[in-house]
Write a structure and sequence with these properties.
Distance between the termini: 38 Å
Number of helices: 3
Strand content: 5-15%
Strand order of the largest sheet: 1-2
Radius of gyration: 21 Å
Number of strands: 2
Helix content: 40-55%
Order of helices and strands: EEHHH
Length: 88
């Protein structure tokens, strides 16, 4: 939907967009791709996004787990493949 109006003789165009995602009709692969696209877009704007206060606490706990040998890192591609296996 587009709404146009004039301010001080200047034409101003506003676009109002409502997004509706047909989740029920999407495959798991399509949903994962949509999430990846959203995360990629958020990553590009990460400088302007602040983390919630609880996030630092969780990161610190995970760092301690790595240092204590209770946790391990997994590369993102491996993690995604494991998630895909778990949900298919």
């Amino acid at each position: 939907m587009r709404v146009a109006f004039y301010v001080d003789g200047l034409s101003v165009l506003l676009r109002m967009i409502a997004y509706s995602i047909p989740l029920e009709s999407m495959s798991v692969e399509e949903k994962l791709q949509a999430m990846e696209s959203i995360w990629e877009d958020l990553y590009k704007k990460s400088e302007s996004i602040s983390s919630p206060s609880w996030h630092k606490k969780i990161l610190n706990e995970r760092e301690e787990g790595i240092e204590n040998g209770e946790e391990k890192f997994e590369d993102w591609e491996t993690a995604k493949n494991n998630i895909k296996k778990d949900i298919s």
